[in-house]
Amino acid sequence: MHPASLISKLPRRAVVREMGLRDGLQSVATIVPTAAKLEWIRDAYDAGQREIEVGSFVPPKLLPQLADTGEVLAFAQTLPGLRATVLVPNFKGAERAMAADAEMMLVPLSASHAHSLANLRKAPDEVVGEIARIRAERDATGARTRIEVGISTAFGCTIQGEVDPEEVVRLVQAVLDAGVDAVSLADTVGYADPAMVSRLFERVLRVAGERLVCGHFHDTRGLALANVYAAMQLGIARFDACTAGIGGCPHAPGASGNVSTEDLTYMLHSMGIETGLDFDRLLALRAKVVKWLAGEPTHGTIWKTGLPKTIKKEEAHA
Amino acid sequence: MHPASLISKLPRRAVVREMGLRDGLQSVATIVPTAAKLEWIRDAYDAGQREIEVGSFVPPKLLPQLADTGEVLAFAQTLPGLRATVLVPNFKGAERAMAADAEMMLVPLSASHAHSLANLRKAPDEVVGEIARIRAERDATGARTRIEVGISTAFGCTIQGEVDPEEVVRLVQAVLDAGVDAVSLADTVGYADPAMVSRLFERVLRVAGERLVCGHFHDTRGLALANVYAAMQLGIARFDACTAGIGGCPHAPGASGNVSTEDLTYMLHSMGIETGLDFDRLLALRAKVVKWLAGEPTHGTIWKTGLPKTIKKEEAHA
């Protein structure tokens, strides 16, 4: 292996997909008003973000923070070129997403049996069955909504502990067979390290190829950016992130903090990987989000230290 | 490039070299009493650490925090198998290190002209000349003290900005020609990203080969562990770290925080790379250091969240 190949394999361009409005807000007690959410989306859009998960079609009783997802999605759909994603935990949510003409819906599927029961009250294979019904419904209705399955707890689980990589590969194959458009791998609880990422993404790439579209890393134990780097070396060029590093999973104790949008963007800019993002605007948006979530834990590093002197503003805004 | 080669290239074993007593303490105002330093070294030794930089032979007027380096070194030399390192900024310091029979002395050489002037009041090539005189003195006296040159600001500088990789390679070649035993590359101010690390280490490996022995990364902007991973992929298997992530450089504003010993150890253990370190003892030592440095900034992540459920105690103690 010649080291140069490590570099040349990296993508030229990567997408930072904003998860703050869904993965972030679902795990904080504060309910952000709809108007602030629209301002968030507008600012993120103005900063160059073109993929945003705007909420979740779950019963408002379960997640009152996301009860306004329909309204938020409708606003996001007015912004040209913005790919607005919604999370749907089940068939009913998928029906709502398709009825709302969402461009994409993300269906979570836990590779951990125990997490799946805690999070969705269904075993993984029951979820696979539901995903197949969602695909059939889309075919029947002619909806355009793309289906991405996010394999959660793909690197281990705070409830169950070990998650067998075999099981991850099996579930990926099962949902591909069920006709989903894309899959992503999520380190829901911050257990992954770069070697695990390298191994698992490589195995899943063998079965999913270009349909493996995204890596979702939590920075619970400080390894999210190292994990992003490991996945990028395999050509992965889309990563989920949350403004101010908010996020987690209500059923995964200790799983605080998606990798922060600002930190991920800084690393990509520093490496010369284009994101289309305006760093100063991301920082300004971060400040707003921190204000809206006053008292909630936030994360991230680069907002404290600022960009290196060696990063030119033009590059940072590339 | 087959991904498997990324993994197989990683070292099986890596050394976490403790820098807290030197790089850490030199940048904090608190003066840790000698007795506490000896306790620190004893605890680090009991946790499995076998390479510790115990201080710096600089004039006590400049760094009163390290005025007891001679005494601390003498204690460290009583612990079987411990490689105690001292930093020496000049010929005079090197004479003291050799007189004290130190096993290794680390001579800093800034690749940034501006940082070199600020830190040592000498241009880089003057420092190279002094290093040659140190080597000649060692030959003349028959001292056993090995000479490692740490190329600081190798990835950029808060004063000067850009540092030309060409200049880093030139200086490495110059000190190798001057007869030093080893070189290391330091991201003194936290400007490096994994792609930069990959490129620069690869270039320096071409001229230094096995004499490039160590990577020194500050976590100022959250990329230290990603940078360690990038260097490990090139076979580098020794990394500097500071307990509780303390550290920095008094002449590099904003350069806070060596990568924390605990976080680095966690990543290595998670990846199955042996360190010989006892994780619980490292955490217990961290708590002591934080107490000794009450009020000073500390860093790190894993002490807050604990090890993943998937890491068995036996593995963590490997």
Q: Estimate what percentage of residues of chain A fall within beta strands.
A: 5-15%
**Terminal Cα span of chain A:** 31 Å
The description of the largest β-sheet of chain A is: 8 strands, parallel
The CATH class assignment of chain A is Alpha Beta
Oligomer state of the chains in this structure: homodimer
Structural class of chain A: alpha/beta
Q: So, the CATH homologous superfamily of chain A? A: Aldolase class I
Shape by Cα distribution of chain A: globular
Strand order of the largest sheet of chain A: 1-8-7-6-5-4-3-2
List segments of chain A where confidence is low: pLDDT < 50 over at least 5 consecutive residues: 1-6
Secondary structure: number of strands of chain A? 8
- How many helices of chain A? The count is 14
Query: What does the radius of gyration of chain A come to?
Result: 18 Å
**Strand and helix order of chain A:** HEHHEHEHEHHEHEHEHEHHHH
- Overall average residue pLDDT of chain A: 93
The count of domains of chain A is: 1
Protein name (chains A, B): Hydroxymethylglutaryl-CoA lyase
InterPro entries (chains A, B): AIPM/Hcit_synth_CS, Aldolase_TIM, HMGL, PYR_CT
GO biological process, one term (chains A, B): ketone body biosynthetic process
Domain Pyruvate carboxyltransferase (chains A, B): 14-283
